[in-house]
Structure formats: C-alpha cells, structure tokens
Amino acid sequence: MSVRRLNPDQPSGFAFSQANLDWAYATIAKYPAGKQASAVIPLLWRAQQQEAWLTKPAIEHVAGMLDMAYVRVLEVATFYTQFQLSPVGKVAHVQVCGTTPCQLRGSEKLLSLCRTRIAPRAHELSADSKFSWEEVECLGACVNAPMVMIDKDTYEDLTEVSFGALIDGFERGTPPKPGPQIARVLSAPVGGQTTLKDAKLYDGSNVGTWRTAFDERERVKAEKAAAVAAAAAPKA
Amino acid sequence: MPKLNIDGTDYEFENGTPLIEACGQVGIEIPRFCYHERLSIAGNCRMCLIEVVGGPPKPQASCAMTVNDLRPGKDNAPPQIKTNSPMVQNARHGVMEFLLINHPLDCPICDQGGECDLQDQAMGYGIDSSRFIENKRAVEEKFLGPLVKTVMTRCIQCTRCVRFMTEVAGVEEMGAISRGEDMEIVGTIEKGLTSELSANIIDLCPVGALTSKPTAFHARSWEFRKTESIDVNDALGANIRVDARGNEVVRVLPRVNDAINEEWISDKTRYVVDGLKTQRLDKPYIRENGKLRPGSWDEALKLVAAKLKAAGGGRTGAIAGDLAGVEEMFALKDLFARLGSTNVDCRQDGARLDPSLGRASYLFSSGIAAIEDADALLIIGSNPRLEAPVLNARVRKRWLRGGFTVSVILENADLTYPVQYLGANAEGLAAAAVQAFAGKQKPMMIIGGSALARADGAAILAAAAKVALTAGVVKDGWNGFNVLHTAASRVGGLDIGFVPGAGGRDVAAMLNGGVDVLYLLGADEIDLSRTGKAFVVYQGTHGDAGAHRADVILPGAAYTEKFATYVNTEGRPQMTSRAVFPPGDAKEDWAILRALSAEAGQTLPYDNLSELRAALYVKFPHLAALGTVAAHGSLDALAHLGGAINREPLRATIADFYLTNPIARASRTMADCSRARLGAVEPAHATVQRLPTYQSVGSTG
Question: B102 FRET partner, CA 20 to 30 A, in A6, A212, B555, B562?
Fold first, then answer.
C-alpha cells in the first residue's frame, strides 16, 4: 500500500448529475433517519464513477449531503484503496492483480509491461493521458491467473502478448471481450475436458447401476448364509 | 453487582465497569495508551491485554470488555481474569515490540521525555534490542496551529487526540487517514485547530507526537518546581498546576477536579503564562510633566497617601479589576472605608449585580457539575464557548447524552452543540423560558455578562429570576438559576461587598468626574478616557491600559506570584499558591495596601496575610471553607425587583477570546492564537509545518 494523499490539482467544484443525484437521494432514504452517514461509501463510489476519480470537492459535497464532517468522509476515502484519489487514464485504469496465484502465473510480466507501455509508476498517467495502472490485491479470479480488472470487467489468463493486445484494443476503441483471453470457457479446464469423458456416462446406460450393485451384494450375502446353514444342519 | 476474580482474589464491581478500570480500582495498574476514562473506547493500542480464564484462548483487551461481559466458571464461580500470567506478559511484550518498531529513538531530544507513557511502559515491557531490520516509516508533520507542535513519526495512532477533538472539544477537525502501517493523524483546517480547548491533546498524547509549541525545547519535565494553584483567566477557577523553573513560570497543566474542570483547561489558561514575563511593572512609577519616571516605594506611597487625604473621603474611589484576589479587595475596601469613602466597585464591566439581594442572585447556583443533571438549558446573554470553554465542554457532554435542549438569547454562535436560536432581544425571555422548560424536570438558565452589563441588566436578571421561580428552575432540591461570570475576581468582590455603599458611586459615576482620586486595582477594561482630570493610581502587574493612564503605578503580583483567594462563578472559594516571586520591586497586593494605609494614617489592623484572613473570615466565614460551596439563600428579593427590559439586542461581550485580560494581552502566544484564529496571518516565529498536499505515488503493492 502507499501513502494516500489528495491530488494537488483539484477541480473547482463538484455536483452530481441529475440522474446520480436522484439515485443518491434514493440511497440515503434507504437508511433510518439520523443514520444517513451509512450512505457514505455508495455516494463516494457513485461520485468516483461520475468523475473517474474522487476529487476533494466531491468528498466535501458528499460530506455536506450526509451532514458529516469533512474529515470523517476523508477518512473513508483514504481508507479504501478502491477510491482513486488522483486522475486515472481516460480510456482505462488497469488494476493488475499481484497476489500470489497471479504472481506465480506471471503477473510480474504484466506489471513490467504496464511500466513500459503506460507509465513508469503506478497511479501516473500515460503520456497521452489515456491509461494508468496500479497493482492491487487479489480480485478473486485465481483459477484464471494472471488477470487484470478494467472498470467492472476482468480480463483473465493473460500473457504479455494478450495483455499488450488488450491495451491495443482499448486504445483503438475495440476492447476484447471480458473473461479468459485464451480458448477456454470461463474457468473450465484449458484445452477441453480431461475427466468424465466416458460416453456411457451420458447415454442412460448407467441408470440403475447402483441398485443392481446393491442387489448383487445382497444376493451373495444370502447365498453364503444359506451355505453355512446347510453345512451345520446334518450335525444337528 | 457482578463479581470477578482478579489474579485469584474475588471482588465485586459496579455494572458496566471496564475491566481496565476494575483492575485499577483494586490497585492493579494495567498499561494502556489509547484508553482514557473521559473519552470513548477505541481498543486499538492493544497494550491493555489480559487473560480471561476459560475464555477465548487469546489475550483480551481489558478496556473494551466490561465486568458484565464475562461468563461464570464452574458451579457459578465468579469469572476469572489474570493480569500477570505468562500469556499476558508475552502479549504485552509483543505489543510493545510492535509499537517500538516504527518509533524513533529520539527520547533525548523529545519534549515528552520524562513524562512519556511509552517511555515508562517500555521500561516494563520493552526489550533491549529490535529484531526489525526493514525500513522504518517516517510521517510528514502536520500543522495544528500555534499551540500544538507535531512530530508525527513518534505517533502510535492511539487516536486520543481525534476522539478528544470530536467528543469533548466538539470540532471535527482531526482524523486518521489511510490504513494499516500508513495510518496518519491529520488536522484538516489550514489555519490550525479552531477550538479553545485544543492544547489538551498535548496532555492526552501518550507519546511525544503532540507537544507544546510555545515551550518547545524549553525545559525538561523533571526540572520543574510544581505548585498547585487556581486559574484566573475566567470565572471557573479551573484547578491547575504551575510548573516553574528558577523564577520563571514555564507551563500550566490541569489538575483533576470533577466538580469544576474535570481534567481539561482552556488554551488561554494553559498558554497565557508567557505574558507574565513581558510588559511587567517591576518598580513604582510616578508621572511628572506628563511622563512616567521610576520612583521608590516610599516616594510613590507618600504621594498616593497625600492625594487620598487631600481629596477627602467622598472624592476618592476604587475599582477592582478582573484578576484581583479577595484579600486585596478586602484590604482596599477596608482602607477606603477608613478614609471615609464608599466609592468602591468590583464590577468594571458595569454588570447590574447587587450583592444585597443575596448570593443566589449572582452565583452559578446549580454548580458546574450539575449541568450533567439538567434536561433543558436557556442561555441568556452569554457565549459559554468563549466565556468559559471548559464549562461549555460540560454542556456539550450533557448534550451528547441526549434528552437535552439548549436555547440561546444572544448571537447565533457555534457553541459546538445545536441550539435553538431565539434572537438577541431579551424582552421575551419570560415567554421563551416557559416554552423551553415546558415538561422539563431539571431546567437550567445561564445568564451572562451580555445581559447584565446594560442599563436594564437588573431588570433582565429580575425577570429571569421571576420566571425561574414559576417555571420550575428553582424548586426543592434543584436550583438551576445560574449567573456565568467572566472575571475571576467578580464573585469574591460581590461576596465581600466591594460595591458602592450608601450614597457611593459606581464605576460609571466614578469615571465621569465623580472622584478626584481614582484607585485602580488591576482595572484595565474600563474606558479610561473618561477619567478626566482625576489623579489615577494603578496597582497592578502589567503595562496595560490602566498603567498608561496612571499618575502613579504601584507594581503588584500576578496570580502565580501570590497566595490569594478567588471565588469561582459557583461561589466556591479556592486559593492560588505562589509559584514564583513577583519581578523586581513588585510586592504582593495586600502588602502594598497595608503599607499605603500606614502612610495615609489609617493603618490597617493586620500585619501579615494570616491576620488579614482572620479578619476576613470573621466577616465572611464562608470564604474560609476552601473548595466548598456555601448555601446561597433564596431568589425572592431579586424576583420582586421588577423593571422594564428595553428592545435593544444583547451584544456579545468577548470580542477576542485570547485577549481578555492584561496578562493575555502581554502574551505573544495569545497574540499568535488570536492572529491564527482570524486565519490570515501565520505566526512568523513559529515553526510553520503544513500538511503537504502533493500526491505521493509509488505503490509498493
């Protein structure tokens, strides 16, 4: 984690768009009277979605809407690293997962590509201001490691080449489809199935197999018992 | 009441007692950093870990668990905790090791050294070396105004300062930003903290992260001579400890007194003392040809005595200032009575208070602590945040508990709690009181100087008393009729009757040519341009307004330099103690008056302070009972006074909280505070440390 500060260059003001304002009031109304401060994270998140990053005027605006002290909202905004406190790339802000599974599967190569293609350091804008990047903790797609997240979409099973193509796609305005970037269905095995391949599993011939097996076992048991009884009878 | 077995012995405790308090009550001290009994519980320092037998198999924070939270043992035996087991010892050593990982080893240059909780507890739980080989963290300094110096790398994130500013001071200007290792304490106001109680966070800080800026690198805590005394900067009489080195008062700290100031003091109380070293009157001065020249005591006293005798009783008058002690006012009144003058007045602001109506008419009758019992408050002509910040914190404390309404007649100021603003006109106060107190069990009124120091002040007070008697403010077992004074000397003066006697002149009459010789006992807050041709004697400590007008200056002793009685706004007599000696030729005030009386041929019959006090206590026995409040009679006489209240709005009396008395006006620290509050100017000599606003980048993942 890094020391988090507000950006030195801040816009002069902030206002929610009408749609977002309606949404914000509806959100605040979900909480009981006097507990409207509970809406602070949803409102900050919506402000960030509107402006792409969280500005100081936005923090002040949210504080005012919720009747909270500015410092209380600032505490929230600086606590959660998902809030971007400085401007992010206009086209894409790339969140590269750097946690162990992704690291083992090559996330460091993705990070070095970020450094060369986007900006040498995290949270800095690329020369054309289109991109920025940061390293984040686990985003929960470990089966498809390594992966990145851009906006709400995850791009998985990346290599340096496919990650480069991903950035190219965003640059051209034709981003690839989210999800695995190799021939794979979601998190199903790479290269197709390796187990459960027997065709009999699916033709109905196995229906009742277990019943048959149980019946057979019972029959053998009964036969053995009869044999034992027969052997004992003549002596008595 | 829950029973608890601590270290093998059974005890019984009040419901809701935190374990850390319970252990303290039976003499087992639990180390702590974040826990403070007057703040909310945070539980984030983890130093107070104890072992709960049969509880979870890990140590528990004893501050965040009460005696009710524990399950009984077998056969309903009391729950058992251990405060000294190997588990506890290990846990505390571990916590201490973590705290010291990032704490700098700069105790030798740290102002907290010698009175540092971390230093003390590291003696018990620290280890001699560190296993930490990574980089230590460093934290940027923050700007918290002219009083609080920060060394943020020393901070252990206990958040006591944040909780104090939010809960007690009532200004949400401090917070903890970021998280984990990067958590930092910040102030969010560029001009510094805007509370009159802000410097209390210096006391609260358990390490050297927040230290005193005006006295930085000035002295070590073990060098001080410590004197228990009383504050005189407002009428609360906050209990203080004066720390002096040599003949210099270096700092003032609060003492605990739950009846008055709990353990807080205002910034003025704490930092006014550098004013004791500047602008001091250290020898007698005599005006000759329009200029003041130094003179001898003999010369000055002879001149004053001659003038007093020449003018004759009726043409002399005396005004006592805001910082005068009871003893000197008693001696001064005594002297003037012997000279045949009844022109004495201690109400230099012109407050229409009349001690002949009984003590109940001018005291904060309920007592300060009783604010916590009240359920409604009507403030008439007072801004308690500026007039008595510590009392205001008590009102806020009551408001935080809920079920409490506050209405205000004066200016619509930010008192740190919400108020119902009723305008500045006092005409409708009776109706306002009836409305505000409807259905309330323990209503309270606070009447302040803005309402009293007016031509119709007596009428306002009488109207308030009248409605108090009918609206349940005064009844059996409850007296919520409170006058909030701003001057430490006022109640003492009224108690001993330092007001004009029969046919005597009050302050206004003395000023408008009513007397030929005017004796000012530290009175500076009067319009001295109206003294005309009168011969003015100024007995006091500072070269302030009074001394500039004076024809003779008699240098006296300030409150840290004498043993003097002050009666606080509740009517509680308390005594200051001498921490240092008065500078130069200055003398204790009663002794000056005793010497003058001899020169004037009316020798006062007491040769030392004990004899003076004996004479004082014969006439006013309640003053002998230091620290206690005597019964104060009924309000009936005041309520029947009547009178018309005029339409003129009430005006605030305190323009600048930091500059209300001669000592404060001589203090550079107070001037810095005053400028900082105005917001424009940064104190030039103070270390200017701003919160940097740049974006620190470079994620390390």
Answer: A6
Q: Measured between alpha carbons, how far is B184 from B248 in angstroms, rounded to an integer?
A: 36
Inter-chain touch B693–A122, beta carbons under 8 Å: no
**What is the bridge-based pairing of β-strands B80-82 and B49-52?**
antiparallel
Nearest CA in chain B to A119: B698
H or E segment at A153?
Answer: strand A153-156
Torsion of CA B211, B214, B218, B224, to 10 degrees: -80
Tokens of A189: 């095995």
Exposed / middle / buried, residue B93 (Cβ in 10 Å: 0-12, 13-18, 19+): middle
Question: Which sign does the torsion angle of CA A105, A109, A113, A114 carry?
Answer: positive
- Region of B12 (left: φ > 0; alpha: ψ -120 to 50; beta: rest) is beta
Best of A71, A93, A110 to disrupt the B interface (most B CBs within 10 Å) is: A71
d(CA B286, CA B293): 5
**Residue A214 in tokens:** 């149980």
Who among B172, B182, B184 is closest to A69 (CB)?
A: B172
Identify the helix (H) or strand (E) that includes residue B60: strand B60-61
Q: What is the pTM of this model?
A: 0.90
Are A2 and B696 a contacting pair at CB < 8 A? yes
Q: Which residues contact A232 (CB under 8 A, 6 or more apart)?
A: none
Q: Domain map of chain A by residue range?
A: 18-79, 92-180, 201-232
Q: Taking CA atoms, what residue in A is nearest to B185?
A: A75
Tell me which residue in A79, A86, A135 faces B178 most closely, judged by beta carbons: A79
Start-to-end CA span in chain B (Å): 51
The predicted-structure confidence for A105-147, as pLDDT tens digits, reads as follows 999 999 999 999 999 999 999 999 999 999 999 999 999 999 9
B140, B692 Cβ separation under 8 angstroms = yes
Q: How many residues does chain A have?
A: 236
Of A2, A70, A85, the CB nearest to B699: A2
**Superfamily grouping for domain A18-79:** NADH-quinone oxidoreductase subunit E (1.10.10.1590)
Residue B177 and residue A75: Cβ atoms within 8 Å? yes
Q: Please tell me the distance from the alpha carbon of residue B75 to that of residue A235, in angstroms, as a whole number.
A: 64
Look at residues B522, B553, B524, B525 and name the one whose alpha carbon lies nearest to residue B540. B522
From A74, A98, A134, residue closest to B177, measured CB to CB: A74
Q: Is B634 helix (H, G, I), strand (E, B) or coil?
A: coil
Name the one residue in this structure whose structure tokens are 């404060």.
Answer: B664
CB under 8 Å to A42, separation ≥6 — which residues? A24, A27
Using CA atoms, how far apart are residues B633 and B628, in angstroms rounded to an integer?
A: 16
pLDDT digits (tens, 9 = 90+) for B494-531: 999 999 998 899 999 999 888 999 999 999 999 999 99
Give the residue-averaged pLDDT of B216-222.
Answer: 93
**Choosing among B152, B157, B167, B178, which should be mutated to test the A contact, i.e. which has the most A CBs within 10 A?**
B178
Under 8 Å between Cβ of A17 and A58: no
Q: How far apart are CA B547 and CA B563, in angstroms?
A: 23
Burial class of residue B105 in the structure, from the number of CB atoms within 10 Å of its CB (0-12 exposed, 13-18 middle, 19+ buried): exposed
Per the CB < 8 Å rule, is A8 touching B695? yes
Residue A236: what pLDDT?
A: 54
Whether A7 sits inside 8 A of B695 (CB atoms) is yes
Give the whole-number percent of chain B exceeding pLDDT 90: 86
ipTM score of the complex?
0.88
- Taking only the tens place, the pLDDT of each residue in B363-376 is 999 999 999 999 99
The domain A92-180 having CATH identifier 3.90.950.10: the answer here is: no
Helix and strand counts by DSSP (H, E) for chain A: 8, 5
Phi, psi (deg, nearest 5) at residue B444: -140, 145
